[in-house]
Structures are given as C-alpha cells and as structure tokens.
Automatic annotation (TrEMBL), chains A, B:
<keyword id="KW-0418">Kinase</keyword>
<dbReference type="InterPro" id="IPR014710">
    <property type="entry name" value="RmlC-like_jellyroll"/>
</dbReference>
<feature type="domain" description="Cyclic nucleotide-binding">
    <location>
        <begin position="26"/>
        <end position="120"/>
    </location>
</feature>
<dbReference type="GO" id="GO:0016301">
    <property type="term" value="F:kinase activity"/>
</dbReference>
<keyword id="KW-0808">Transferase</keyword>
<dbReference type="InterPro" id="IPR018490">
    <property type="entry name" value="cNMP-bd_dom_sf"/>
</dbReference>
<protein>
    <submittedName>
        <fullName>cAMP-binding domain of CRP or a regulatory subunit of cAMP-dependent protein kinases</fullName>
    </submittedName>
</protein>
<dbReference type="InterPro" id="IPR000595">
    <property type="entry name" value="cNMP-bd_dom"/>
</dbReference>
<dbReference type="Pfam" id="PF00027">
    <property type="entry name" value="cNMP_binding"/>
</dbReference>
Length: 209, 209
DNA sequence: ATTAGATCTTACCATACATCAAGGCACAGG
DNA sequence: CCTGTGCCTTGATGTATGGTAAGATCTAAT
C-alpha cells in the first residue's frame, strides 16, 4: 500500500475577527493590539473535536475566529441539551467553572472546522489593566449574558415549541443554515421529530423561509 | 360611620440581617457599618404590595431583611411565571434593567409583610470603594447567579415535573412551608393541578415530608 | 458504483401535562 | 353564625410533545 502524504505549507493564521473585536471593545492602539495578538494562543479545531469535556475544569474562554462551536450538557439518561452556539465572533466558555475552579458539566465541541482563540483569565486581566473600555465591555457582556439566560428561562416556562422555534430563527437566522436541525431541536428542548412536525405545520400555514 | 385609626408608636426598625450580611461580605469595621446603616433606605412592605412592575426601570436591588418577596413575569396569555423567591437575607432585583437602564419585564411583590432594604447603584459603588472584599463578594454573587440560571435552564430542558419538584424542596425546604403551592407550581413551570398530582404520586411512593 | 452513516421526515401510538369543572377546607369579615 | 374567598384536590378529557420504527435523501468512504 502506498500512503501519500501531502504537506501543505502552514499558512499564517489570520485573526481579523479577533483583532476587530479587540479594537471595538478596547481603546488600545493598533500597535498594542498587534503585539497582543502575537502572544495569543490560537488553534485549529477539527469538526468533532472537543475543547472542554464535562468533569474538566474550564481554563479558557474560547473566541470563534472562524467556524462554529457548541456547548451542551448530557443528562443522566444520556440526552444532550445544547446550551449555546458560537459562530464567528462569539465567546463561549463555562464561566462558573473558570471562576470557581470547579469541574464543568459542559462539553464544548467544534461542529465545523474552526479557528479558535484561547482566552485565559490572565489574558483578560492583562487587557483589562490596559484598557478600562475593555473592562466595561466585559461587564456589559456579563450582564447581557444574564439577560439572555433570563429570556431563555422565560421561553422555556411559557412558550410552545413552535414559538420557541420562531424566536430562534428570528434571533439566529444564520445558524438555521449551518446547524443540523436535530441540534436546533436540542437547543429548543424538543426532539428532532417534534421539530420536524413543527416545521411541517408552519409550512402548511404558508410560513416562508 | 365611625372610622377608628390606631396609631402605633413607630418602632425603630431592626436591621440585624443586613448588618450581618455587610459584616460577612465586607471587611468594614462595625462602626463603619453602623454609619452606613443609618443612611440606608428601609421600607415596610405589606403583603401584596409591589416593589417593581413590568415597564418600570428597576432602580434598586432589594434585600429582604424580614419577610418574603417574589419576582415574576406575565406572558402574553396572562400567565404568571415565577423567576425567583427572596426570603430573609436574599437579594432580588432585575440586574439587566438596572444595568441597561431599560424597562423591566419583571414584577417584584411582597408575599408576606416584609422589611426591605433598598440598595441603589450608588450604594453599591460607595461600599465597593470602601471594601475590596465587598467587591469580590459581589463578583462572586454575580457568577453564582449565572450558575443558578444555567442550572434552571438545564432542569427545564431535561427534567420532569416530579424531578423539578424534588430538586426544589431539596434546595429550598423552608420555602415549601411558606409559599402557596400554586406559586411553587409557577416556579416549576407547571399548573397547580399538575403539582397537586405530582405530590399525590410521591405520597403514594412513600415519600416522606 | 456500492455501501454505510448521518440527517430528516412521516406514521402510529404512548405519555406528561394542561384545561375545565366541581367540590372540600380553612379562614377572615360581616 | 353564615358567607365569601383563596387554596388545594380530584376526575374527566384534551393537546402537545415524546418514543419507536420505517423509509427517503444525501454525503462520504471504500
């Protein structure tokens, strides 16, 4: 048997998204940002690879430079429940696990081949020192996170599967095209079969797209 | 008609719980705490009175010195969904509303006659300036809050009504005795009738307490 | 080209929970 | 004492969603 290995020249990774992110959220000069970028840990993650598994202590937040990640839990009966998707320019992590240094109950997995930036607590500390704007942006993100969690709880308490689906496609129209439906079902808290029926009903009601 | 008004002498309000709270969460001297306590806004809230209504911008966090508060939303079909209970020593507020200066979608109501301390952003700022321990304790509370919201989402996604009820009484055994069952049902995201049946089933299975 | 695997759909039946209606109980107010 | 009101329960029935199984596509690997 002949094995053919093709070695592509390793291309320098482009971090345009993360660079833009830093320049928007902080008041650092471009020079300072470029310097930071050189120190930052970047990895290419293949579809299906895990950045965090339940039981591990989460040590980084992950910034999706390219691709798509998801965070999910697995309950006692083995069912997955998707907590969050993270396409380009999103941060994903287990905040409590990082903060309390406690084992996470989340899995974080790439669902497309992705380029991911590893953001450590130290990194956050350093940049926060350098830029008060950055600090404020992070405060704000934290509050938004809480707001979003509240909203999700409300939906789960009060809305039907169909309503939740409609909210989802309105909030994340791009994800609808990139994520398999069964994952959307998991995010919504229903089975893929139910989602299929919901979509059928909506189609019957002349719902477009 | 004769109207009889009895004027009780206004008793000085005791703030033992809040005082203890401050001394645990901060490294301030007792003298400093006593000074703070004199400035703090305290109100007696009758059962059924509201501290916040949907549409208002939330201006304070509320510390329950005595009594019991609840926060809830009302959905389009008029159904209430309880977000949180706050017995003694708990803080309750709409963080996002305060932070973003945006109209809240929460109601906060006293479900027992209560003594409530109004905690403004300025108050938080002042005490945070005085004590780094206090600042850290607040950070920690914020992270715990997120953790708790995550947990609730997980329960709603994955657990049955019965499981959620069992979690509730294990986590808040004291509330079970103080809160009407229909409110617990609302917190769990089920109807009072369903909760009644869940309890009946548990009783059949020899479940104690 | 063939196969295997993943995804999505559909049909049928099962179950959890909601809804509606009625009744019991406790407690407060006239 | 009676009466209303709020809370809880129970039964009958409805509905949304789950579970199982099968088939249709589609893609990727052999």
């Amino acid at each position: 048997m002949i094995i053919l290995i093709i070695l592509k020249p390793k291309l320098p990774v482009v971090l345009d998204n993360f660079k833009l992110y830093l320049s928007e959220k902080s008041d650092l000069t471009e020079a300072a940002i470029d310097k930071i970028l050189k120190e930052v840990r970047v990895e290419s993650i293949q579809k299906g690879e895990f950045l965090l598994s339940a039981g591990d202590v989460c040590k980084h937040a992950f910034f999706t430079e390219k691709g798509l990640l998801r965070a999910f839990t697995v309950d006692e009966s083995g069912k997955e429940h998707i907590i969050q998707f993270a396409p380009e320019n999103w941060l994903i992590s287990d905040r409590s696990s990082i903060y309390f240094n406690a084992p996470s109950d989340l899995f974080i997995e790439a669902i497309e081949n992705s380029t991911v930036i590893f953001i450590s607590t130290e990194f956050m500390g350093v940049v926060s020192e350098m830029s008060s704007k950055f600090r404020k942006a992070n405060d704000r993100a934290l509050q938004s996170h809480i707001r979003q969690l509240q909203h999700r709880i409300n939906q789960l308490l009060g809305a039907t599967a169909e309503e939740r689906y409609l909210t989802f496609i309105q909030k994340y129209p791009d994800l609808l095209l990139r994520v398999p439906l069964w994952m959307i079902a998991s995010y919504l808290g229903i089975t893929p079969e139910s989602l299929s029926r919901v979509r059928k009903d909506l189609a019957k009601k002349n719902f477009k797209s």
